[in-house]
Amino acid sequence: MADRLARAPGSEAAWKATAGESADGLPVIGLVPGLPLAVALGLGTLAGSYAFVAARWLAEGIASGRDLTPAPLRPERFTLV
């Protein structure tokens, strides 16, 4: 039964995906300082939960320039190389 549920109708292969996460395990969401870039990365298995709120934070940030993303999730906690 599980094998049949893992396949999309008409598909020959089971569905697979990666669940990436950041170095500290928290998602990286927000406007990247100094770059014309907005990101929502490292959502891991919480992608379904975070997707809508991340989209709202990013849309607000892009439209107004104010990043509403909580500080612990913002990209500036990492150094870009």
Mean pLDDT: 83
**Total strand count, please?**
2
Radius of gyration: 16 Å
Question: Helices and strands, in N-to-C order?
Answer: HEEH
Compute the number of helices.
Answer: 2
Oligomer: single chain
Low-confidence stretches: none
Percent of residues in helices comes to 25-40%
* Measured distance between first and last alpha carbons: 47 Å
- Range of strand content: 5-15%
Description:
The chain is globular. Strands 1-2 form a two-stranded antiparallel ribbon. The chain is built from two helices and two strands. Helix content is about 25%, strand content about 10%. The chain has about 80 residues and is α+β, with helices and mostly antiparallel strands. It has one domain (about 20-75).
Question: What keyword list fits this structure?
Answer:
two-stranded antiparallel ribbon; 10% strand; alpha+beta; 2 helices; globular; 81 residues
Short recap of the structure:
This protein is α+β, with helices and mostly antiparallel strands and 81 residues long. Helices cover 27% and strands 10% of the residues.
Please render the helix and strand layout as text:
Blueprint: H1 2-5, E1 28-31, E2 38-41, H2 47-64
Antiparallel strand pairs: 1-2
